[in-house]
């Protein structure tokens, strides 16, 4: 069954798209079939890194004005997979979102269309920041939540609320990814304190990297700079996801027009 990995942060600037793109790329390079979906409206950042965009995206698929084959494009070449992996990217799109009462069903139907079209092993969701109706909808299908938290007190309260919501609605594997830290080593006492405060484990520590901010090109940083500490930590995170219990949440059935 397909596993949904949601990359989320409560505030903007934590590196959601950078981490999503690199995580998807590392997974695909390792031989996994990956679908990377930018769920935020008008988001096209992944395309700028992975060599392309489409006129329509996830928003059009949710709105019912485009089909899955039209919004997804193959970016496998950008990650150099030689182990049978595949990377398909869906940008955010520009269509107006459905009525809030209908967005859950419309999003579920869109995901079913993508799974039917591309049959991925993993779906990596690059979300909009904040705890919104759309975020809650995505969390209901999430197997692995990677909640990004920076060393910024303003991040902590909102991230703690998000972590609590994820646990309450039954996300199987919510975890913290600490970003923009001075290094990759976290003192055991600090780790224990953070995990107690958020009530979920720390999955990875990604250091601040000026090289990532300055990175340009058509290949994810973790692939073109594999010896970098940030890349090493990200690759270890990807390996842990692959090795995790494959049990997944079942995507609710898509509603037909007669339902």
How would you describe what is shown here?
The protein is an alpha/beta fold and 259 residues long. The protein has a single domain (3-243), classed as Rossmann fold, CATH 3.40.50.300. Helices cover 40% and strands 18% of the residues. It has eleven helices and eight strands. The chain has helices at 16-29, 45-50, 58-63, 68-71, 103-118, 133-139, 153-168, 188-198, 210-214, 221-224, 229-243, and strands at residues 3-9, 33-38, 72-74, 86-90, 122-126, 144-149, 173-181, 202-207. An eight-stranded mixed sheet has the order 3-4-2-5-1-6-7-8, sandwiched between helices. Strand 6 (144-149), helix 7 (153-168) and strand 7 (173-181) form a beta-alpha-beta unit. Helix 1 (16-29) packs across helix 11. The radius of gyration is 17 Å and the shape is globular. The two termini are 25 Å apart. The model has no long low-confidence stretch (mean pLDDT 87).
Strand order of the largest sheet: 3-4-2-5-1-6-7-8
Number of strands: 8
Going by CATH, the homologous superfamily would be P-loop containing nucleotide triphosphate hydrolases
CATH class call: Alpha Beta
Task: Name a few traits of the molecule.
single chain; 259 residues; alpha/beta; Rossmann fold; 11 helices; 8 strands; 18% strand
């Amino acid at each position: 069954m397909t596993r949904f990995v949601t990359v989320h942060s409560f505030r903007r600037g934590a590196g959601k798209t950078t981490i999503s793109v690199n995580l998807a790329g590392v997974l695909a390079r390792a031989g996994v079939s990956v679908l990377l979906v930018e769920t935020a409206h008008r988001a096209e950042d992944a395309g700028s890194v992975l060599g392309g965009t489409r006129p329509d995206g996830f928003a059009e698929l949710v709105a019912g004005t485009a089909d899955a084959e039209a919004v997804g494009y193959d970016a496998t070449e950008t990650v150099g997979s030689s182990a049978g992996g595949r990377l398909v990217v869906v940008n955010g799109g520009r269509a107006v979102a459905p009525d809030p009462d209908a967005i859950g069903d419309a999003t579920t139907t869109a995901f079913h269309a993508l799974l039917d079209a591309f049959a991925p092993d993993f779906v990596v969701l690059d979300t909009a920041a904040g705890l919104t109706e759309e975020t809650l909808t995505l969390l209901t299908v999430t197997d692995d939540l990677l909640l990004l938290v920076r060393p910024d007190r303003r991040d902590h309260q909102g991230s703690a609320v998000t972590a609590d919501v994820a646990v309450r609605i039954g996300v199987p594997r919510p975890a913290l990814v600490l970003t923009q830290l001075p290094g990759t080593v976290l003192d055991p006492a600090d780790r224990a304190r953070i995990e107690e405060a958020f009530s979920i484990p720390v999955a990875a520590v990604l250091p601040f990297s000026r090289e990532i901010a300055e990175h340009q090109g058509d290949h994810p940083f973790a692939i073109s700079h594999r010896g970098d500490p940030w890349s090493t930590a990200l690759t270890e995170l990807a390996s842990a996801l692959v090795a995790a219990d494959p049990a997944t949440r079942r995507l609710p059935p898509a509603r037909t027009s007669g339902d």
